[in-house]
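Anyone up for a design puzzle?
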């Protein structure tokens, strides 16, 4: 794969993480840069880890696991979105490590299937992972900052919109999975 192909792959895999980073950025009240860095770091780490796992264990994973990963992503994102809307979490609760880790895993499950594909294409997995992680980090950092700016526009409705965004991303993942089957 060319560098351009790897860049496009990184962009495609990072889109869900970018959207969730915007939602997380909406609840940042203070310490913008450290929180944006934390969000970007965890999303980039898991976007790199999952293709590696898919690549290394390619013979174990099959299409059924890919379908389950989409369903699992949908359930996690929808649950967290509903929880965010219902509880009106304080901004700091939305940015704790546990919350970010769950979202990072949920948005990176589809990257495992990409790792499986990379194994079949005999791509240098280290180079591919570096591209994926760099693109994800940059997009998620920018997404968190963009979310903070949106918070100023949305005022006290940011948590609700962030929760709705998580639910929308979960629904989009399922719709994409269903449309790829038919």
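Challenge accepted. My sequence:
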């Amino acid at each position: 794969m060319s560098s351009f192909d790897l860049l496009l792959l990184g962009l495609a895999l990072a889109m869900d993480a970018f959207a969730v980073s915007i939602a997380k950025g909406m609840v940042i009240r203070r310490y913008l840069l450290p929180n944006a860095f934390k969000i970007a770091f965890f999303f980039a780490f898991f976007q790199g880890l999952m293709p590696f796992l898919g690549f290394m264990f390619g013979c174990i994973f099959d299409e059924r696991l890919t379908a389950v990963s989409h369903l699992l992503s949908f359930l996690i994102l929808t649950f967290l979105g509903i929880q965010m809307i219902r509880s009106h979490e304080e901004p700091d609760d939305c940015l704790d490590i546990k919350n970010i880790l769950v979202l990072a895993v949920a948005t990176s499950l589809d990257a495992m299937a990409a790792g499986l594909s990379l194994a079949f294409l005999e791509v240098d997995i280290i180079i591919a992972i570096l591209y994926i992680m760099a693109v994800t980090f940059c997009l998620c950092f920018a997404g968190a900052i963009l979310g903070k700016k949106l918070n100023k526009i949305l005022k006290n409705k940011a948590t609700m919109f962030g929760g709705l965004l998580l639910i929308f991303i979960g629904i989009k993942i399922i719709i994409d999975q269903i449309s790829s089957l038919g």
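A detail worth pointing out: The mean pLDDT is 80.
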